């Protein structure tokens, strides 16, 4: 199916939406002051080695020290792939050591960036592996003959003195030798510049920054199914055309400047889709719905029939709801950029054929996703467990922050709970202090309850401590906020 790419550019933010059949499938947002670091190369300095965790902290010049695990050191790559014993990190790294590293995961929450010394630099058709002398083929290229032929072509184009290797990307499937040779040469020259900088710059220093979001769109997201690439900034469209001239000439004719009166994202209701993607509930066309909860450890997806009663029988209703949910879940994972462990609770199905069909539909829908995933079968509890590689913040973490009212719990204490808490606090303070009066500053809801249903308890407390208690509404306070002033 043809998909269109919409690129909305402002001085402070670039947003990219991938739209298929009028529905937004994927969203990417990059803010000028919060550019991601994945793919960047740094000359870092080891600041602490932790043998107990087989990890080390590395200063690469970011706000928080990044970390590297023993398995991400290239010296251990062969042992890790073979399932052998890894060389301990304390034998490979020491404090104060300068180290060329690549960011493989952006800082997430309170965690620093994750690093690797297994360097890879992506081009349009090839990925250069300067420390690994082999040629690999993308798993998405099917057909053993095609894979062998592509590998042989790349090997023939490699110079005799080449010590590194390459991974052939899916975009290379229809490329000719000149295009492959140009990509190969560009990556080798780029690596030579990086190594020269590494010898002359102090640690920590940035050696190579990955492309901007709009350039990565041309390099990574354009596929044979891509119809048009619309950009609402004339200057950006021109820069992309110039960049495509050099690196992705086959894409150039699809890039055009959008000059319509309506904002570009309004043409596909993208902002409306962003609003929906920040909600817990996702409504299905049939009347069923999903509840998506994202936590620190994992993401859960619960499927419900809701108001759908359209099947011939109850089992048929459940089956059709689960089939529709499988497609919707795959889209939501891409749209929200949910990663890590994901648990899907489909509606229970007794029929094994129904379960197999739902799982097949889920895998089919997930096949459109560029992110690496693993999906298990139904567990004994009827759950589908899967993982989706997480390299950057989810959409919710990019656009939202913890609620200051509920402290990100997702709920607030009731006015009655707060009334009783205030009564206990006044009683506690009356035993320590001897003011003329206690004045309670609280939200409207709490004060109203004190004046109505809890007025007797407030009067009883005043009589017990022998001091008057007055109430004052503080409009700026949230429901859980209050102060007790001693007068």
TrEMBL record:
Keywords in alphabetical order: Cytoplasm, Endonuclease, Hydrolase, Magnesium, Metal-binding, Nuclease, RNA-binding, rRNA processing, rRNA-binding, tRNA processing, tRNA-binding
Cellular component terms (Gene Ontology): cytoplasm
Cofactor(s) required for function per UniProt: Mg(2+)
Gene3D superfamilies in the record: Nucleic acid-binding proteins, Ribonuclease E, catalytic domain
Subcellular location per the Swiss-Prot or TrEMBL entry: Cytoplasm
Domain S1 motif: start-end pairs: 39-118
Main location: cytoplasm
Entries under PANTHER family matching the protein: RIBONUCLEASE (PTHR30001), RIBONUCLEASE G (PTHR30001:SF0)
Name of this protein: Ribonuclease G
Organism: Neopusillimonas maritima
